Amino acid sequence: MNIENILKRYKIPYIVNVKAFNVQCPVCPKDDPDNGLRCGLFKDNSGFNCFRCKKTGSLDFILDKLTNGIYEKELENDNITDTIKKVFNPETEIQESVKSYSVTLPDSVPVTKELCSKWYILRSFLKKRNISIETCQQYKVRFSIGGKYPLRLIIPIYDNDKLICWQGKDVTDTVKPKYVFPSHAPIANYFYFPTGFQKKNRIIYIVEGIFDTWRMGNIAIASFSKKLSKEQQLKLLKRNFSKKIVFAWDSDAFRESIEAANDLSSLRDGVGIIRLPKGQDPDSMGRDEVLKLKIKWM
Ligand SMILES: [Zn+2]
User: Which of 21, 40, 264, 294 gives the lowest tally of CB atoms within 10 Å of its CB?
Assistant: First the structure.
């Protein structure tokens, strides 16, 4: 967190000391207010300490107080992207927001037991990948029989209940590309959130693909690629997001995960990585084995 940028942005008077930025204390008693600049916000982001009233606490808390709650509100509302962009990098031009677009699912039917009994190719794919019909139903997975994308699992991708994209996975394992997306959907701006995902989970794992998140349960989100976009990074900076984020990309993407974790750790605390054994991904290993791996914190 760049404290000085925030103070400037909210026009809060301050002086710079060796270890802290000093501001007028917003929590000194009302009948004995701070008439100097005696509340220190520590440059190492460890919190604040008022030298008059002796109160201490987190930066978030004191910034809320200093801005009469505006700081809190801005972080919570939908303009978070712009807010954090300004806070972390005031020189960055705010990019034009993503043009409005709409996505519709291709012709397909929900995956059910009946459907699987009719379609051997679907049934054997699910069996081979160890995906249950219950999982398909939980994630609203569909199957495209014909049309433009024949014999593909159609997996809808939502962001806050809005359909933003879908992924079509070839179930014959013979057709390329293995995965298709609607080309106009800005998928790189988003993550795949599994059903029941809680942003406040103690630790959240970032995995590459949708099947990885299914295997990990409600503690993992998928990045779809081996690099985080600016928009994805910004989602992970929201304050209501988990305190700890661990990269768990496929074993062949370990190098990329170090880069991404380094990048993210310059913006927030609590970033770590795990190294998957050669040839493995979270889907092949399973949740329990992934959770046993030692986390290296950045
Ligand atoms: Zn005080």
Answer: 294
Cα 59 to ligand 1 centre (Å): 14
Q: Which residue has the tokens 């000391």?
A: 17
CA of 141 to the centre of ligand 1 (A): 55
Question: What are 24-62's pLDDT values in tens digits?
Answer: 999 999 888 888 899 999 998 889 999 999 999 989 889
Task: Using the predicted structure, report yes or no on whether residue 90 has a pLDDT greater than 50.
Answer: no
Quick check: pTM over 0.85? Answer: no
Smallest CA-to-CA distance from 63 within 114, 113, 5 is with 5
Give the C-alpha separation, 56 to 45, whole Å: 13
Q: How far is the CA of 50 from the centre of ligand 1 (A)?
A: 5
Band of pLDDT at residue 83, cut at 50, 70 and 90: low
The answer to whether the CB of 168 falls within 8 A of the CB of 180 is yes
Query: Ligand 1 centre and the CA of 25: distance in Å?
Result: 5
Q: How far is the CA of 62 from the centre of ligand 1 (A)?
A: 10
**Domains annotated on the chain, with CATH:** 3-88 (3.90.580), 98-187 (no CATH), 191-298 (3.40.1360.10)
